[in-house]
Amino acid sequence: MAALQEQALSGGGPRGTNRLPRAFRLRRQRLIRPLFDRSRTDVGTIAKGCVRLLYRIVPRCEVGVNVPVQVGFSAGRQARRAVVRNRIRRLLRETYRLHQHPLVALFRNRSDTLTLMILYRADPAAARECIRRDLPRALQRLTEQLKNTLLEG
Predict the structure, then answer these.
(1) Structural domain of residue 139, as residue ranges?
(2) Disordered: where is this region (predicted)?
(3) Residue 143: inside a domain
(4) Would you give the DSSP letter of residue 25?
């Protein structure tokens, strides 16, 4: 397991760096719940088109795994059927996996972890075009915003 994490972090391996290992998935309630707590001041949000990003920087000891970024995906309330929700989450995962590199590089050598939740907030029928258009722009905006705040602090 540790070898796979190191391989994913270093960019080595036969599949390159376009992997999204299980350790990078946000699954613990104690890390997810604070992202949706509106009274917290350490949670940031970015909305771009049909996608909303909720993020928080957490010490790695609190996460429990030595990874730079942990990310979760949600399809939103309009996707009522399980088949549709799963398809939207699959599209979100795939698009994030292809555009994750700047975020991972930003937190690779830091002592904290970025916890990120990606939410889809539009009509499920337009999910494919909307996610492919808006998620890369939202991730780019998040990277720029985090670069600025990390350089200041």
Answers:
(1) 25-152
(2) 1-20
(3) yes
(4) B
124: helix, strand or coil:
helix
Tell me which residue of 114, 129, 105 sits closest to 51, measured CA to CA: 129
The chain-wide mean pLDDT, for the chain, equals 88
Which amino acid appears at position 37 of this protein?
D
pLDDT at 13 exceeding the cut of 70? no
CATH number of the domain where residue 57 is located: 3.30.230.10
Structural domains in the chain (count): 1
Residue 107 CA to residue 30 CA, distance in Å, equals 21
Place of tokens 């907030």: 121
Closest CA to 115 of 57, 66, 37: 57
- Domain presence at residue 47: yes
Whether residue 5 lies inside any domain: the answer is: no
Q: Give the Cα separation of 113 and 99 in Å (integer).
A: 18
Give 46-73 pLDDT, tens digit per residue. 999 999 999 999 999 998 889 999 999 9
Q: Which of 34, 117, 124 is nearest to 69 (CA)?
A: 117
Q: How confident is the model at residue 153 (pLDDT cuts 50, 70, 90)?
A: low
Give residue 79's pLDDT band: very low, low, confident or very high (50, 70, 90).
confident
- Please indicate, yes or no, if residue 111 is contained in any of the structural domains: yes
Cβ pair 136, 99 in contact under 8 A: yes
